[in-house]
Design a protein that fits this description.
The protein is α/β, with parallel strands linked by helices. The protein has a domain at about 90-110 and about 225-425: 3-Layer(aba) Sandwich (Rossmann fold), CATH 3.40.50. It contains 19 helices and 13 strands. The strands form 3 sheets. The chain has a 6-stranded mixed β-sheet with strand order 3-4-12-9-10-11, with helices on both faces. The chain has a 5-stranded parallel β-sheet with strand order 8-5-6-7-13, sandwiched between helices. Strands 1-2 form a two-stranded antiparallel sheet. Helix 4 (about 70-80) packs across helix 5 and helix 16 crosses helix 17. It is globular, with a radius of gyration of 20 Å. It starts with a strand and ends with a helix. It binds pyridoxal-5'-phosphate and the ligand N[C@@H](CCOP(=O)(O)O)C(=O)O. The ligand N[C@@H](CCOP(=O)(O)O)C(=O)O binds next to helix 6. This is Threonine synthase. Its EC number is 4.2.3.1. It catalyses: O-phospho-L-homoserine + H2O = L-threonine + phosphate.
């Protein structure tokens, strides 16, 4: 399989090259030249596979021949053997046709582990084979950072630089990153928002000389491999609930549009998805787009669901590329206009096309806390605030889903990552797993930098171990 850029001016690459390149050299994002199709008979044959077995089938379609099947299978087995629940991504029923898929049983307690645990292994494999070293650079609003650090800590060929917005993550999230003292891990607090940090990452990739000098690689969902690994759990949930002989809808707490975009890919591959419900907090640019076509930036506001405090959603560009008939020039022009004016030009036809599969809504902080309390009272389940946004919006938008169709809300983080929000809702602080019990006492290490890419690149050059 070959990959092309959303901006139409970067070379076509295979999976192994896309994995290491991350962002396309024309500033765009890579995606497959065409979607692999999965026929209903194949899906029926996949029913009953365990999570790793299903991941092998799905990932093979994206990886092609760039990794030997035995190597890929071994990496996938190792990845999901490290999860804390035998089902890896268990489904729990909250009510009639209302489910949550728990994606927080990985090592850092958020859905990011599904892809990043695999990516750490894929990077090692690729760098070993080419006898190269690399620098991983990522931005995080709280969860990607710790998942990337956990996946790449102590790997001989990698240095990991993670930017988080100073004071805008939960304390547990920050400590999950800054208490990892491995010599190849470099945490940086940025004076700014997640969007500023993400812009700095993209600008560093735009500096070709720097990029080639250090062997820069991305761990954010701008890297196609992240998205590919997240497609698997849509198949996993839908097959368990009757696909391909029954449609399933998903509600997805959304910030950078990576997770819900993986659902769009599953649907594009043939999975019968009735609706993808995009659920945002008060930082609602994506909800506004799908509701009334308004994709215009507003300042980022801090909320109880800090990982979704994002107003520039990277992966939206991948959807836009499809909405614009896979026209790279038109996509690049629209993104340029958005960057210059803060407003994305889209036609009524493009919005109507998006609405065929997507619906959306937003839940503010009060609603988030109320939903945690309500679901706890109804079922005894404790939701994290991001998942609560998903449940609230799924309930608001239920009438847009055909009657009798199950709605699966992606439970994207463990409630113990956000004890203050949970305590506000139910008067109780959820406990961290025993292996993290001393997290709040561990020493921290991080640097603080201004949101300036030249300061960042100098910092990387002087701190990387693999110089
Ligand atoms: C806990 C949690 N939920 C939801 C999201 C939103 O996912 P995405 O950015 O892929 O839309 C994030 C971060 O991105 C997250 O960390
Ligand atoms: N919420 C994310 C933001 C980055 O998203 P990504 O999926 O592109 O890595 C986080 O927790 O860092």
């Amino acid at each position: 399989m070959q990959y092309i850029s959303t901006r139409g001016r970067a070379p076509r690459l295979d999976f192994g090259q896309v994995l290491l390149d991350g962002l396309a050299r024309d500033g765009g994002l890579y995606l497959p030249e065409s979607w692999p199709r999965v026929e209903p008979a194949t899906m029926r044959a996949w029913r009953g596979l365990d999570y790793a077995g299903l991941a092998k089938q799905v990932m093979r379609l994206f990886v092609g021949t760039t990794i030997a099947p035995a190597d890929l299978d071994r990496m996938i087995d190792d990845t999901y053997a490290g999860f804390g629940h035998k089902a890896v991504a268990p489904l729990k029923q909250l009510g009639a046709n209302e489910w949550v898929m728990e994606l927080f049983h990985g090592p850092t307690l958020a859905f990011k582990d599904f892809a990043l645990q695999l990516l750490g292994r894929l990077f090692d494999h690729a760098l070993d084979r080419s006898d190269r070293r690399g620098v991983i650079l990522g931005a995080t609003s709280g969860d990607t950072g710790s998942a990337a650090i956990e996946a790449c800590r102590d790997r001989a060929r990698l240095d990991v630089f993670i930017l988080h917005p100073l004071g805008r993550t939960s304390e547990v999230q920050r400590r999950q990153m800054t208490t990892v003292l491995s010599p190849n891990v470099h945490n940086i607090a940025i004076r700014g928002t997640f969007d500023d940090a993400q812009d700095m990452v993209k600008a560093a990739f735009g500096d070709e000389a720097f990029r080639d000098q250090v062997g820069l690689t991305a761990i954010n969902s701008i890297n196609w491999a992240r998205i590919a690994a997240q497609v698997v759990y849509y198949f996993h949930a839908a097959l368990a609930l009757g696909a391909p002989d029954r449609e399933v809808a998903f509600a997805v707490p959304t910030g950078n549009f990576g997770d819900v975009y993986a659902g769009y890919i599953a649907a594009s591959m043939g999975l019968p998805v009735a609706k993808l419900i995009v659920a945002t907090n008060e930082n609602d640019i994506l909800a506004r787009f799908f509701r009334n076509g308004d994709y215009s930036s507003a300042g980022v506001r801090p909320t109880w669901s800090p990982s979704m405090d994002i107003q520039v959603a990277s992966n939206f560009e991948r959807l836009l590329f499809d909405l614009k008939g896979r026209d790279g020039e038109a996509t690049a022009a629209a993104i340029r206009t958005f960057r210059e004016t803060g407003h994305l030009p889209v036609s009524d036809a493009e919005i109507a096309k998006a609405r065929l599969l997507f619906d959306a809504g937003a839940a503010d902080d009060a609603r988030t806390i109320d939903t945690i309390a309500r679901v706890f009272a109804e079922t005894g389940e404790i939701l994290d605030p991001h998942t609560a946004v998903g449940v609230a919006v799924a309930r608001d938008r239920r009438e847009g889903v055909p009657a009798g169709t199950p709605v699966v809300v992606l439970a994207t983080a463990h409630p113990a990552k956000f004890p203050d929000a949970v305590e506000k809702a139910i008067g109780r602080r959820p406990a961290l797993p025993a292996r993290m019990a001393d997290l709040m006492e561990r020493p921290e290490r991080y640097d603080t930098l201004e949101a300036d890419v030249s300061i960042l690149t100098s910092h990387i050059l002087s701190h990387r171990r693999n110089a």
